[in-house]
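Consider a protein example.
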Amino acid sequence: MNTDRQRQLPSSSQCDAGADPDLPAAAHAARVAATQGIPLLSVLAWYAGEGRPLRQAPPLRACAEEFLWSKKNAHCGSDTMNEYRSALHRLAVPFGDRQPSALTPQDILDFLRPWKHPVTRFGWFTRLSTFFEWLVLKKYAHTNPIALLTKPPRTGGSGTFFTHAEARELLRRVRHSDQLGFWILSLFAGMRTTEIKRLQTYASPWSLVRLADHVIEIPAGHSKTARRTLRISPLLRTWLQVLKKQRGRFYPPYRTAPQIGLVRRAILREFRGPGVIGAFNLGRRSYISHRLALPRASYAETALFAGNSERMIKKYYRRAVTPADARAYFRLTPASVAPSHV
């Protein structure tokens, strides 16, 4: 149906509003058409193709379960599945018994109101928009209410990257903890949190971190984009040798994993004051920002190394780092980082 005709036709809520309960929905739609001068065949065609599926759509809670099933069968990664599952289960608390077409943009705004941080809101917008686009495709909803809202900017906020002084203090604190592996791969290899997690769950993690060959293999199933190989720099190699000597992990166990966020926030509060939270993958952002500030830095090489496009690198990772700061950052050897006394 063309756009002009679609605008003329009544929505499912218009057809339902004020309808006689003893009058079939199609007959009521015909009566609405007659009063608005719309051809009856157009209304019946719209009702058969769109109106009836909207009226018969399952409640949002059931739609969410079907969506998760479809994503699982599409072989989405476990971290992505957990993000969708968490978001949709929370959305189902206030709206689970309603049909998807009944949700309005204002309902979504009210639901998102508690999440103030732009990074968090951006994540919610992205996940819910994907869900509602799927609902439209399934004819469970007529429009995507997320598309009618202003999308928040994707920004790292005030804690976009660690300075070399902040990174030094962080490494001092985690030097002898089970967090060391995570932070050195994040700060000095630019690996994503999910990539480090998946490395730890690999049957033989050190077979992918090949010190003799000076490379780290990130298989396609571990990466957000595609398989890639990271070169182990002399600085990273020194830290990895410390980690191996300590028999450390690349990612802490479930019980102590929350300490990663606690340490990150503690460092930012100490150096920048209260109110600073910092972005997800902050170590990765720090690595890329400082790498781009080195003399003769290449956007193409950095993008390839990081598993991003040059456009993404320039838009989201390029920050005001001086060459002197970058050199200081990449001199943070184990010898320069004293053991933590905190």
About this structure: Residues 109 and 149 are 8 Å apart (CA to CA).
